[in-house]
Amino acid sequence: MIYPKSNEYRSVLNLNGIWHFKTLNESYDPCIPLQNYTPMAVPASMNELVTDANVQKHVGKVVYETDFSIPLNGDMEYRLRIGATSHKCDVYLNGVFIGEGTNGFLPIDLALKNIQKTNRLSVVIDNRLDAETFPAGRIKNGKQIINFDFYNFTGIHRDVLVYSVPKKNIKDITIHTAVDGDYRKIKIDVDTSCDDVRFEILDKQKNLILESESSEIIIDDPHLWSTRDPYLYTLVVKSECDRYEERFGIRKIEVKGDKLLLNDEPIYLKGFGMHEDFFLLGKGNCCAVNIRNFELLKWINANSFRTSHYPYSEEIMDLADEYGMLVIDEVPAVGMIHWEQNFGEKGANEKTLKLHKELISQLYDRDKNHPSVIMISVANEAETKEAESEAYFKDVIEYTKSVWDRPVTIVELYKSDETLASKYADVISINRYFGWYFDHGDLSVVYEQMKEELQKWHDKYQKPIIVTEFGADTIEGLHAIPAESFSEEFQLEYIKENCNAFDEFDFCIGEHVWNFADFKTKQGITRVRGNRKGVFTKDRQPKLSAHFLRQRWGNILDK
Ligand code: GCB
Fold this sequence. Notes:
By secondary structure, the chain is of the alpha+beta class. It folds into three domains: 17-158, Galactose-binding domain-like (Jelly Rolls, Sandwich); 170-177 and 179-250, Immunoglobulin-like (Sandwich); 265-554, Glycosidases (TIM Barrel). The chain has nine helices and 32 strands. Helix 5 (350-367) packs parallel to helix 6. The site of (2S,3S,4S,5R)-3,4,5-trihydroxy-6-oxo-oxane-2-carboxylic acid (GCB) has 10 residues, from loops. (2S,3S,4S,5R)-3,4,5-trihydroxy-6-oxo-oxane-2-carboxylic acid binds next to loops.
């Protein structure tokens, strides 16, 4: 799946802006323009903009509508790309159903066969989550129950683009680099209806460095992509009828023994679990927020993040390539906890398994050409200790390995001798909150308990381990000596104690603090306007611990 881009053959019309919006309590007829609507921003989460609690908390369907006009050209095919809506959606053009989105975090790309010069586009979004959706949830007495710790935002969250391509066109490009382990070898697969395609490779400055008629290309003396030098080439696919440019980086990623190797050298992951969440935007993609996030990641000397707990926007993935951030790409399999409630007859079943696999393959279609994507996470804190979960996750992990050419992990809540899933993964990922959710406030237990935990996992699996979450809620400006929980001093000491434990083991190959920045959650007695485990505040300013991490990570050099 290639991103809509404009050039001499293709054009893109961006439909972001103010749309018509309404919560749907009655039936909806897409043939009739929406009545009694309110204006609504796209992309954005409606929950952060409305003032009426009933609208903000609406469980069910909402509708977004907009009109657009476009000059039509009979030689072109028209398509619609919606980066993401949360969650499932039905899309209508001029009253006619044209397709659906199955989840909240991956693009919807549909043919616009009935496009006119003037059109009405309607998107009906269903924000309900149940055992067959990703993320998983439950509806009880009309209320949405969620088993995950981020706000269930509703809206059109990413760009809405109408684009045109020539009737004979380039549909998809897959770029394989370092083929057979040889950095010089590139192999390109093109899905196209054009009769002939040729290739050009441009260097970072966009100078032409080679042309080829063959899809198997040798770049002599290639400039590798790495965290310190994220060098990107551009591949140009050309034909008589169409042209497309795709950036790529040359790098290898593999697990060998207890190590994760980037370009044959061990790499230590320094970074965060993150969220797409900002004031007023909710989960709405915003390039200014994205830039600030990446600037802060660089400032703090991070080299990686996990897209906890769902795929992030395509714009973020492009920036990860450009900034040299290593990404653990996670599918929205979160909240899959409690087998008896969410799996089996009442819950996850054949249909869930099928959709889970579909999401992994949709993620591949979207993100396969990003050098930044170094690992796939198939779930966060899922139910992995019940007997039935073994077959489920074995299947999911084996499927992921058959689709993706990158290491696969599953982020675990359970203990090393409880889970039935991690034995199938290439890398162990664990979330641990010693001294926070257990022995709350006792900093003296953190180092020993974390050390013991890491040792147990390694003894059992002999695989490299990433601590994908550890953290403490921290209210900025709250100070205490000696450190008390929720103070900036506590977060600092807490992170230091954990890091001391990580430093004891070579098989510990990464630390991702939970979280990069404070974020919105449902209301709860442990949540003071959201989850406050951010090392940065929600407005993206550092808490005390940020300065420690900056220094620590600055001293752990990437090769
Ligand atoms: C976790 C979850 C994450 C939560 C975090 C917390 O284990 O994976 O989504 O936000 O704990 O802060 O409780």
